[in-house]
Design brief:
This protein is mainly beta. The protein has 1 helix and 22 strands. The chain is globular.
Length: about 425
């Protein structure tokens, strides 16, 4: 499992996705690893610390796998992390104290195959907010087999699929997030296939049991709908374009104000994504038409259509990276009595919601230290979040990360519970 640091890649995108709210908002992860079991279940700050390709995790599943036979236990990927979280608003009381152990391996399977397995075990200490519900946990982070035959590749198992140009953006909707204190993308069980040509590729995926963002506060209606989708990408010099279509399950359940039950019913998506390189910066754009999204209207639960789009500029100057991004969600069918559920009841829904982000990250000269700053203005200024991070690559095995976050939210809007949200987080990790 990659070390959770605030590097340039950590700012490639962002998402805020309240599980009981109407619309997900893009956001970044890096330093918002704060812990509070109450907020965990309602607000998701997703991690995008990995550079996902269009269909998989960051592993090079097509490349040659070399193993240093002279290295002891070369087949083993081992990581041990100790994480702490503190609340400055409450005399720096401990909100997070947990130890994580990851074990994994990867390698070739026959002449045309490749596989990966990674398990994570977590120990929650008594001061951790998760301890009241679970003292420990074991998860399958990744487990898949992939086989390549000429211009075809098939993949079966548990992994992640990244759609679109912006991680967490309008098109990156296949995999849900874990929660505020567990912001990584949740892997799922997929069957996928990709056909490659000279300058294009056609990919398909199928998921018979899609999952949603975890929420202990929600009682989800258990529907057995499938997820499936297709992507067609065209590769050009200095530019890429892709077209998307599929039936998907919302990553965040929506609470029906009538019966109090939460639903995650399927919706249909048509989308387009592209990027274009210009010297030191990269332009990214995604747009998606989403049909039959569930929404609350006064006295009834209805289906609505929505257009989501993202525009971002990724600027690289040596080790310094800037990201400027805007995300917008526009309801095609709109009435003044549309409502957005919150933990305190409901608030009126806006036809258009917009999120702005600006972030910068860099290294301290040629040292092993790096830093980052970011600011988010979400949902038409209903929420503002400022974060800062400091990372130290101690050596090839040891890493440390320090982050701080502060949120300001309007009292009468959907994110009001995050007002004056403050966290300081520390992580130390050993990686073999």
């Amino acid at each position: 499992m990659p070390f959770s640091s605030i590097t340039a890649t950590a700012f490639s995108s962002f998402r805020i996705a309240p599980s009981v709210f109407f619309a997900p908002f893009t956001f970044f992860n890096s330093v918002v690893n704060a812990d509070n079991s109450f907020f965990d279940d309602e607000v998701v700050f997703e991690d995008s610390n990995q550079e996902l390709d269009e269909w998989s995790d960051d592993s090079d599943i097509f490349g040659d796998e070399s193993i240093d036979d002279e290295k002891s236990l070369a087949w083993l990927n081992l990581g041990v992390s100790q994480k702490w979280g503190f609340n400055p608003a409450s005399s720096y009381s401990t909100t997070k104290e947990r130890t994580e152990l990851t074990l994994g391996t990867s390698g070739s399977v026959s002449d045309s195959g490749y596989g990966e397995v990674e398990l994570k075990a977590t120990k929650y200490w008594p001061s951790d907010s998760y301890y009241s519900t679970s003292a420990s946990d074991i998860e399958v982070e990744r487990a898949f087999l992939q086989f390549s035959f000429e211009d075809w590749s098939t993949k079966l198992g548990r992994y992640t699929i990244g759609w679109g140009e912006l991680e967490g953006g309008a098109l990156d909707v296949v995999n849900p997030a874990g929660g505020l204190t567990d912001p990584k993308i949740i892997s799922q069980w997929f069957l996928s296939a990709t056909r490659y040509s000279n300058n294009s590729d056609l990919s398909l995926f199928y998921n018979s049991n899609p999952s949603i963002t975890k929420s202990a506060l929600l009682s989800l209606k258990d529907d057995s709908d499938d997820e499936f989708g297709v992507r067609y990408g065209i590769n050009r010099e200095g530019s890429d374009v892709a077209f998307y279509a599929g039936q998907l399950i919302p990553n965040n359940a929506l609470k029906n104000l009538i019966d109090g039950v939460t639903y995650a019913s399927p919706y249909q998506l048509l989308g387009f994504g592209m990027n274009k390189a210009f010297d030191d910066y990269l332009l990214k754009f995604d747009i998606a038409y989403k049909r039959n999204l569930e929404h609350n209207r006064l006295g009834q639960f209805i289906k609505v259509d929505r257009i989501d789009w993202d525009l971002a500029f990724d600027i690289q100057k040596n080790d310094r990276q800037w990201l400027i991004s805007i995300n917008s969600q526009y309801l095609l069918d709109f009435y003044e009595d549309y409502l957005t559920p919150t933990l305190l009841g409901s608030v009126s829904t806006k036809r258009n919601s917009t999120t702005f982000m600006a972030s910068v990250s860099d290294k301290f000269g040629d040292s092993d230290w790096s830093w980052s700053l970011s600011n988010i203005a979400a949902s038409n200024n209903d929420l503002s979040l400022t974060s800062a991070g400091l990372d130290w690559d101690i050596n090839d095995h040891w890493k440390a990360s320090l982050g701080a976050s502060y949120a300001n939210a309007k009292s009468d809007r959907a994110f009001s519970l995050l007002d004056d949200y403050q966290r300081v987080n520390l992580e130390v990790k050993y990686q073999y």
